[in-house]
Amino acid sequence: MSHPAAITSAELHERAKVIQSKIQAWRRDIHRHPELSFTEHRTAALVHDELVRLGIQTEIGVARTGVVGDIHGGDGAAVGLRADMDALPITEENGSEFDSGTPGIMHACGHDAHTAMLLGAATLLKGLADEGRMPGRVRLLFQPSEEAADEEGKSGGLRMVEEGALEGLDAVFGIHVDPTRDVGIVASRPGPLLAAADEFDLTVRGHGGHAARPQLANDPIVLAAHIIHAIHHIVSRRIDPLEAGVITIGQVHGGTVSNVIPDTVYLNGTIRSFTPEIRDLLHDELRRTCAVADALGGSFDLTIRNGYPPTVLDPEAVAISLAAVSEFLGEQNSQIATPVMGAEDFSYMAQVAPGSFLRLGTHNPDWPKRYYGHTSTFRIDEGALAIGAAALAASAIKWMREKS
Q1: Active-site residue 348, yes or no?
Q2: What pTM did the predictor assign?
Q3: Active-site hit among 35, 285, 308, 348
Q4: The domain over range 196-305 is classified in CATH as 3.40.50.300
Q5: At a CB cut-off of 8 Å and minimum separation 6, what does 169 contact?
Q6: pLDDT tens track for 169-199
């Protein structure tokens, strides 16, 4: 009995180009109707309806507003493919025909594209399964809330893991649009790709008074200034120069009028790192640095909240996904990325299964500038959509083939 020939990554790309207009339509529909974290009801319904139309076994309400679909092929390896669905609280200023129709909310990080590309990959893989050409199983992970956490401090990715959505998977692959790279270029790297992202709240306490009589007060603004200066020496003087870390103060609030010394100053910031050792060191050094307030007669309250852990990728999974992509984009366009201090809750999934996370170039080199994420003018070249769909599907097939 003859068996159907194995499909190549190049053939998957050709099939993806055939459904490019469909992927684009999904992306524009989702872009037009953005939803914030854990409120992705319309987006989840769209995903569910499309998966049902394809004949894919589907579960809704996972991690509150997520959708999980399973495609059954052969008895080989089980692979997860992940996309996030939530938008950001930003007012869009692009002026396109499919701009956000919801005031104050916008897909400014490409999650609309991620969702559409995974629907495209689902279309490709279900077709292969129906042809008897998929050697294993695929689980489609449409997760909510990558951008924010709920009242328990949990993001959609963490809730997906806790609810067992990744149980039984041999690998998990994700993708993210990347405006720093041109369309046609995809990158990833083994080991740490993205950072842990923690947050701190600091209240510096002094003793207020009249601005004309500072000797009768203990100015918390001055105390905070000493602390800020010391914080900016932590990375340069307390960690190994060959290691990486960031502490950034994003907010400083103190005082109400020019002639009153306040009692307190509030600071808020972020701590970024790639390893548990540097993460702990930065936390410890921040606590020591804030004690400057005590030395100068004031006091402080510091709260550090752990955010997403670093996104650490499996060397074999990365090698397989980049090799799959190079088969239709060329080796020169399947690249090793440099680590960046951004953060991703794909990190939770990569902790429970070998993971690869592709950075998909979305910049059109003919554009006058790059349109970066988390801005009101963020945009992508939609020519990248078919590439992303094919990259997800090809990564899954190549892993199955090599592991089955």
Answers
A1: no
A2: 0.95
A3: 308
A4: no
A5: 78, 79, 80, 139, 352, 353
A6: 999 999 999 999 999 999 999 999 999 999 9
